[in-house]
Structures are given as C-alpha cells and as structure tokens.
Amino acid sequence: MASVFHTCGGSKSKSWEALDLKGYGIPATILAPADSTQIENFELSGIKDVSITSTGETPFAVQIYAGKAKGNKLVEQTFRQIREVHSNPEFHKIVEQHSDGFIYEVKGHHEDRYSFRYVHLVRDTEIVFTTALNQRFSLEEVKKMYAAVKQK
Predict the structure, then answer these.
(1) Best CA proximity match to 116, nearest among 70, 90, 82, 88
(2) Which terminus in the chain has less CB density within 10 A, N or C?
C-alpha cells in the first residue's frame, strides 16, 4: 500500500505510509507519518507491546498491545475496553463509539485531552490500538490516528 493518508498543516501536506507490524509479532498494518517515526517494542507475559511515535512535526503516538484473546466476540472485547477507560477517574465521556472501538475525552487538571481504543481480532489474537500514555492530543489528531489504525 502506498502512502494514501494525507494530513493538512499549512501549505505542506505530509503523507502517511503503510507500516507492517508483522515483524513485531503483530498481524496488522497501520498508516504512520513518514516523518521520523520511532518504534519501540517488547513482550511481557505473552503480551506484545509496540509503541510508534512520530519524532517529526506530525502529532502521532500509538501504542499497540497484542495477546491471547479473552473471547471471540468483537463487541465483548470493545465493551471490556470501555469498562477499562470508565475506571479512570479523569474519564469524561465517549465522543464516538463503534462496534470495534471508540474515541473518548479525559478531563485533566490543566487541559482536556482525547484518546481512543480500537480492537481487532485475528484468530485467537486480540490487538488493541490506543494513543500512547501521557500524550495530549486534540480531537482532530485522535480521529486521524484512529482512522490510521483501522484494519480492513
């Protein structure tokens, strides 16, 4: 897949390119900014954890967890993720909800921020995509990242 996703920022348009995660043990491909993307990965107790961050101008920081699925129904996996974010005392509201994911708002002490969770099942593997921890993104930035991780 060629670069198919463009972000608007002033007069320059930056493309996002396909990034195959199979080399990190995750059966998925996402779109990521072409400008200086940094990837970190590790595995703990059978769960793969890959962080992808743009070190360039494009706001992008996604964390991907992959491990044994705790069921085979996508809606149940998504609902489990909703319960998890609801347990955060700073959780404010779900902004968008789909059968395979959602975007939500968190109220912080200094400013509001947005995040997402997107769930993808591949056979007996559950893959959860989210914004990287401790990052602050606008709703528009989160929507772009959410679209970039959606699997076909």
Answers:
(1) 82
(2) C
